[in-house]
Design a protein that fits this description.
Keywords: Signal. It holds the Pfam family Glyco_hydro127M. One of its GO terms (biological process) is carbohydrate metabolic process. The protein has 623 residues and is an alpha+beta fold. The chain has four domains: 218 residues, no CATH class; 160 residues, no CATH class; 97 residues, Immunoglobulin-like (Sandwich), CATH 2.60.40; 81 residues, no CATH class. It is built from 17 helices and 21 strands. Strands 13, 14, 15, 16, 17, 18, 19, 20 and 21 form a nine-stranded mixed beta sheet that branches. A seven-stranded antiparallel beta sheet has the order 2-5-6-7-12-9-10, with no helix packed on it. The radius of gyration is 24 Å and the shape is globular. The N terminus is likely disordered. Bound molecules: 2-acetamido-2-deoxy-beta-D-glucopyranose (4 copies). One 2-acetamido-2-deoxy-beta-D-glucopyranose binds next to loops. The site of one 2-acetamido-2-deoxy-beta-D-glucopyranose has 2 residues, from loops.
């Protein structure tokens, strides 16, 4: 869906890139009228967002690609080229080794797309070419044609026979490799990636066509990522119905049936196992028009966002969904797994594209990206390492990982957890959901400093802001033409103001929870300012109205507790909260009878913090 025509892949001012053919989507998508811009057309500008991107790019550009190829080559009986093996979840004896690499491939592809970076392109191209060699050696390795993985194909036989008992999740790992290849094909135009991907898909068809429907459903009891999604994608890019049939084999009835009936049976399920299936359901709807798929995806989103998410937008405790609305009862040190939110954001933008009048999708996107994922990267680390969970216990601290990761931030070569993969990808696509377009409009969904090059209309839009510290965003248009700018007015604001060239925009409604529409004949240098007044808000836990997080506009605030250990949820006097300075988001308050400083949770690193409070009183009306 990202690219619909032949595009010159050259980012502005980038020299190393040549025009390449990007494959269009061949199957029209049911219900979709609004599209993201290709990453080649959007660049971040200086900001916290760009700092995150830079740190992750430092890492993925410095990584030794031969080390990432080690397990693939070993498994496919090729020389490992003297490379060192990795540790963590990519160690040569880790059951689902090579699950992370697809995300690294996508990160290099994203880096090349948005920045025209030759080094990223070289790494992506080399990685794909080496995977092709692995796949080509299958006869010698004793694998079926098309198989590609860092563990032996015999794991799939065991999976099918239900004798796999080492914790492996083979399709989950293979799915991630396939997505990386799809991105290399459809974002970068790499035809080797297409060939390797289609051979893998044929291999999946070969294995699954031999299973009865009930054998297949039993097998789906083991985490399989978004196999339905990637195969439906392949159908959309090839217009070969066969792939849709293979995709639908991965429709997991035990998960889909209750969702189709609007029943929330998420409690106790491994959360990140489910979300990719829902993303697949949304794509299967777009591929077939069958509304049952749409019901499944929408109901899953509604349940998860409204009944299973913490104030920061993350969900899950110890990787699992808990009973609906159980929030205050689960403030632990292993809440909000990173992967789940990465996947929820994918689902969110996919569903929004089917319902672009609805601002609640991007209200959630902003909430989760700003308050969960942005701060899940360690800003003190030039390689931008990632935390697996985001603890929400009183006095929690980021960088607390699972015991198997040493309880800390990820590392260059010894972690490779699922969340490191999704973290690497997240921080290289921070520009991909700011702007969207349809045949008459530009949508501004996120307030992020950036430059959009809207090639099709010969227009550039430059967004400047220090949001969410400052409440005002400037959108400067260069170029001309008749179109509508549609700006998301978040539900948390009131009295939003829109000006054009310094004058209040006439007859433009800017009600919270709607898109403000500015239709005009644009001329160069037209400047739109969007002011979204912010104030303190209480974000109560669904299961206890007195247990609440504090927000200022979109930003969740947390208390700074240094090294102090908190043994219970601190009692906060809401009436005591005051803003210390108008220039940044520093507040102070009284909690447990002592003064505490509050700041943006996305900046809470290196000390114990507190997010949820036992609240009393009410917020000052002036704050
Ligand atoms: C633009 O898109 C809308 C909504 O999908 C559609 O109804 C309309 O016909 C389209 N107009 C043109 C000129 O393509
Ligand atoms: C997380 O909390 C559990 C108890 O809920 C505790 O046993 C464990 O040590 C904590 N882990 C860390 C890293 O603080
Ligand atoms: C936001 O920035 C504008 C323009 O620089 C400035 O006039 C305004 O005072 C700032 N507002 C806040 C709340 O900091
Ligand atoms: C737009 O502004 C730039 C600098 O701010 C100026 O150089 C240019 O002439 C302006 N263009 C128009 C059409 O006013």
């Amino acid at each position: 869906m990202r690219a619909r025509s032949i595009l010159a892949l050259c980012a502005l001012g980038a020299s190393p890139c040549a025009a390449q053919t990007i494959p269009p989507i061949l199957v029209p998508e049911v219900g979709v009228s609004v599209h993201p811009f290709p990453m080649t057309q959007v660049k971040l500008s200086d900001s916290r967002w760009m700092d995150n991107q830079d740190r992750t790019l430092n890492y993925v550009k410095s990584i030794n690609v031969d080390r990432l190829l080690y397990n693939f080559r070993a498994s496919h009986k090729l020389s490992t080229n003297g490379a060192q093996a990795n540790g963590g979840w990519d160690a040569p004896d880790f059951p689902f080794r090579t699950h992370a690499q697809g995300h690294y491939l996508t990160a290099w592809v994203n880096c090349y797309a948005t920045l025209g970076d030759a080094d990223c392109k070289q790494k992506a191209t080399y990685f794909v070419a080496e995977l092709a060699k692995c796949q080509a050696n299958n006869a010698a390795a004793g694998f079926n044609t098309g198989y590609l993985s860092g563990f032996p194909e015999s794991e799939f036989e065991k999976l099918e026979k239900r004798t796999l008992n080492n914790g492996n999740v083979p399709y989950y790992a293979v799915h991630k490799t396939m997505v990386g290849l799809l991105d290399a094909w459809h974002i970068m135009g790499d035809e080797t990636a297409r060939d390797v991907l289609l051979k893998m898909a044929a291999w999946v068809d070969g294995r699954t066509s031999k299973l009865s429907a009930s054998q297949m459903q039993t097998m789906l009891g083991t985490e399989f990522g978004g196999m339905n999604d990637i195969l439906a994608y392949i159908y959309q890019y090839t217009n070969d119905q066969k792939w849709l049939k293979v995709a639908q084999r991965f429709d997991h009835a035990a998960v889909f049936d209750p969702l189709a009936n609007k029943e929330d049976r998420l409690n106790g399920n491994h959360a990140n196992t489910q979300v990719p299936k829902w993303i697949g359901a949304a794509r299967e709807y777009k591929s077939t028009g069958q509304t049952r798929y749409l019901d499944i995806a929408r109901n899953a989103w509604d349940f998860t966002v409204n009944a299973h998410s913490y104030a920061i937008g993350g969900n899950s405790q110890a990787e699992h969904f808990r009973p609906p609305n159980a929030i205050a009862g689960y403030l632990r040190n292993d809440t909000a797994e990173h992967c789940n939110t990465y996947n929820m954001l994918k689902l969110t933008r996919d569903l929004w594209a089917l319902d672009p009048e609805k601002t609640s999708y991007f209200d959630f996107y902003e909430r989760a990206l700003l308050n969960h994922l942005l701060g899940a990267q360690n800003p003190a680390d030039q390689h931008g390492h990632i935390t697996y969970f985001t603890p929400l216990n009183p006095g929690g601290k980021r960088g607390i990982g699972p015991a198997w990761g040493g309880g800390t931030w990820s590392t260059d070569y010894n972690s490779f957890w699922c969340c490191q993969g999704t973290g690497v990808e997240t921080n290289t696509k921070l520009m991909d959901s700011i702007y969207f377009y349809d045949n008459s409009s530009l949508y501004v969904n996120l307030f992020t400093p950036s430059v959009l090059n809207w090639e099709e209309r010969g227009v550039q839009v430059t967004q400047t802001t220090t949001y969410p510290i400052n409440d005002t965003n400037t959108l400067k248009v260069t170029g001309s033409g008749d179109w509508t700018m549609r700006i998301r007015i978040p539900s948390w604001t009131a009295n939003a103001e829109i000006k054009v060239n310094g004058q209040p925009a006439e007859n433009v409604k800017a009600d919270p929870g709607t898109y403000a529409s500015l239709t005009r004949s644009w001329t160069s240098n037209d400047t739109v300012t969007v002011k979204l007044p912010m104030k303190l808000r209480k974000v109560a836990a669904n299961d206890d109205q007195n247990t609440a997080a504090l927000a200022f506009g979109p930003t969740i605030l947390s208390g700074k507790y240094g090294n102090t250990v908190l043994n219970s949820v601190p009692k906060l006097d809401l009436g005591s909260v005051t803003r210390a300075s108008g220039d940044d988001l520093v507040f102070s308050a009284t909690a447990d009878g002592k003064k505490v400083e509050l700041g943006p949770f996305y900046d809470a690193h290196g000390f114990n913090y507190n997010v949820y409070w036992a609240t009393s009183g009410s917020l000052p009306s002036t704050a």
